[in-house]
Sequence to fold (902 residues):
Amino acid sequence: MTSVSETRQDHDDRNLRKVQNTQNAQAARDVPGDASDHAPRPALSRRRLLGTVSAAGATGLALGAAAGATGYAARRPDPPTALTTLGTGSVPFEGAHQPGITTPMHARGHLIAFDLAPGAGRKEAAALLRRWSASARAIMAGEPAGGGDTGVALDAGPSSLTVTFGFGRSFFDRTDLTDRRPAALDPLPAFSSDHLDARRSDGDLWIQIGSDDALVAFHALRALQKDAGTAARVRWQMNGFNRSPGATPHPMTARNLMGQVDGTGNPKPSEPDFDRRIFVPAKPAAGTPAWMAGGSYAVVRRIRMLLDDWEKLPLAKQEQVIGRHKSDGSPLTGGKETSELDLDRTGPDGRLVVPANAHARISAPEANGGAAMLRRPFSFHDGIGPDGTPDAGLLFICWQADPLKGFVPVQRKLDRGDALSAFIRHEASGLFAVPGGAGPGEYVGQRLLES
Amino acid sequence: MTSVSETRQDHDDRNLRKVQNTQNAQAARDVPGDASDHAPRPALSRRRLLGTVSAAGATGLALGAAAGATGYAARRPDPPTALTTLGTGSVPFEGAHQPGITTPMHARGHLIAFDLAPGAGRKEAAALLRRWSASARAIMAGEPAGGGDTGVALDAGPSSLTVTFGFGRSFFDRTDLTDRRPAALDPLPAFSSDHLDARRSDGDLWIQIGSDDALVAFHALRALQKDAGTAARVRWQMNGFNRSPGATPHPMTARNLMGQVDGTGNPKPSEPDFDRRIFVPAKPAAGTPAWMAGGSYAVVRRIRMLLDDWEKLPLAKQEQVIGRHKSDGSPLTGGKETSELDLDRTGPDGRLVVPANAHARISAPEANGGAAMLRRPFSFHDGIGPDGTPDAGLLFICWQADPLKGFVPVQRKLDRGDALSAFIRHEASGLFAVPGGAGPGEYVGQRLLES
Fold:
């Protein structure tokens, strides 16, 4: 442990050395990748990091330095050197697809929907998307937002910030672009278990912000809100979170606030049909507008969890509801998390081991004609609701090339017979067309708004 | 970058090796410390980590392994090895002082206040504090909470979790312990700028939860709520956050949501009078009840920031309001963040460089008879309020041996003439007596409730 009598100068000196070591480590990781690969990568960050990059290699020092780490009151202790890579991770703004779709789940997120202001049309929308893209491009690289940065992200690296923009169905009426509206934006069907609040649903424009640092995410939210100016008004806004990087030693599939491993069946980019299922092709099929090339559709649901009820249920009952073991997400029919469910197996009592109404059975891709969506949610917790129960649950966000082949058929089946539905409540819903990523000098949505 | 065609088994194998490396690194850091030192330290964490500890040393591999890190859809990428220390950090429950006071600021926090249920008195309160201490002792060590753990923290290490318990003034009436109530719990004076909501203020019992992982913090919140059973009812609950460990390369003083460096003047444990100012002595002076030995007093204020107004103010005006530079927190009279303010210096126009109503001038310890409090806040952001402005600001928490020598004199001065007061609003307030830490086998508050 560092002596508490250490001087501030000693302390600063030691940290500077660590920053240098870290930069070297990052240089070693900075190998070229596909521009459409939105995994975080090392990048130049804000001014605190600039000027401290050293060319000398000393990777072996990293954990030695960690041995000297300690804390002092109300300050974060010197992080082990490699911990500082959290801040320096950055995700490219440009690419075939927008960031924030295949980017690993973020520790913090904000969702915000806007409606165009009365009188604002296509011209104002184009100017707004241009401003938004300029800001996103800057802050995702760790640069200040234009026009009076709030300073909230100063000192921090980009912390893998992503900003993702989408258009709601109503946007196309407001901008006289109805002829370019994808059929995939037709309203989602009503589900019998919906308890939707229209004021927190839909919207002309939607932005998803994600970062591994809460202040970086908040900074982005405020910058983009400011950019809206008089062109658009906030319709709704929600905050979410996931596990912090490093809290688990494995890159575990996420857990949700019910304690369930959640996301096991997600398609993987390594699967040959991943792109086809999640993204509109570079040459869209007939009937899909050309401006959606490389795009995707996001279904957003605020799913309240009735945690007081859920937590009263004994573990064995919870596992029957889900069809998987809580401890590791493995099917009740055995194996490990990624093992396939044996949907036909019966127990000694002759009953199905994975019950007929188990969530995992009903939502299994094989039970839904291979329907595939990429779920990339945030948990939310907005304190205690007016009814005294926790206002907590899942900001469910799923991505697919076609909602009618992804979310809709699965939700239809869940709506009819999912044992989990007694413990959740869909409180808000949105469906957004998320265009492909911007090219150099381009803004997101330009191909819709200017072609 | 790892090839996306890597098999799951390859992936797991590589991670297992990394866990082993990390454990070795932690073993190197695990040096004995003062039991009252609540800086996080390595510890055994949950079952995923158990069984993977290797005795072989291979610290030099850490950053080499990081060079192979990448991500795949909707999963965190393999973190650089040392990143996994975030989860394994743990803070001891026992000690002269409770944890969560001098512990470095946490990325996530929950505050929750309870009132004893009608009919519940000293006996029920003692049983409740016993349950709470048992749970805190377990979950701070990464063990499950008793009686039906929700599973939300499974897979994660303790992530530097702390749980801190306090008693409000009303607690002593409810438990017939008025004769043991410290005079320091006398109600705070009313301040002219207060806009306090009684429903979100005060409370018989108060718990502060902090962790560097959001799910670990939420898990603790639910476990402690469950422990309350029929003995106590939630009065109010708030959520907060700070920068993530590693987002900044330096252990910077925190920034708040106004973008200001906040906490520069905090007393440091290395200062000779730190303990005297922050903690009640082991042998309390006459007039202070013996059960408060090693304790402290927490003042909690929900301070809403009027960010729409603040962000419209040009940078130079913001700096006049604060008296410091926004970029690095240095005084307007020059130097670096920790330099003293030159309160008498005038500029070429003959006016004070640090204006008479600047926040830093009025709150300076030297301007307040050496009043000292340890500020350890969280930011909060509860979305957009009914008035359309961000419901965001600071969960101000300050710690002191005597509120009449810490918070009260400083707030009195700020209340009379702080330029910052036009941009903030105190919306809720609490004052809690936080007893000393538990000894082996003891529960927090036992010396009050059983002696």
